[in-house]
Amino acid sequence: MNLTTSKTPIAPTAEGDHGEKAADRLDKAASEAEGERAVSDGSGLDADADRDSDPDLDLEDDDSDRAPSGLAAAAAAVVATGLGVVGLTGAWTGRVVAERETLLGQMKTASGGSVARQISEIYGDAWHSTALVNGIFALLAVLVGVFALVRPAFGTPGKDPQPGWVRAVATAGIALGVLGVLISVGMYFDLIVALPAASAAAG
Question: Which of 8, 9, 83, 188 has a 20 to 30 Å separation from 170 between CA atoms?
């Protein structure tokens, strides 16, 4: 009798423990699944939040927007200086034009002509052509230099001002261009050095 009484409560106790453990495992698995879904749903928001809060990404975007305007101004400043130097020293195009005018002058005066006409056709036209070509390069230097200085005013406004070296180089290009224009005008109109006179050539 005692053995039978002692075995009766054991079986339901074991079954109850197994049921409670299974229920705990199901609840735990469900909570883990919900946590994973919450993390997966919030990943996109976290990425966007990190992008918005990262200052390096914002600076890269801003730099990419301002890069074209800054690059154009810097390139224009360098080109303006180069054109100004060419306007003062001359270019191979000026020599080609001068040689062409000299050849045409020789052809025109081959059949004869006065000394004054030979000077004008052979020497004067070549001289004036060289001055004209140099003046065109100098004028281009002025225009490109002005463009380099005023370029930021027509582009997208940026936080950083135009670099100082760009303004300095552009200003130098404008100064060289203006000087080249003045010299070319003086040479073209014989204001600096006049053509030889026919009387001096004859004497």
Answer: 188
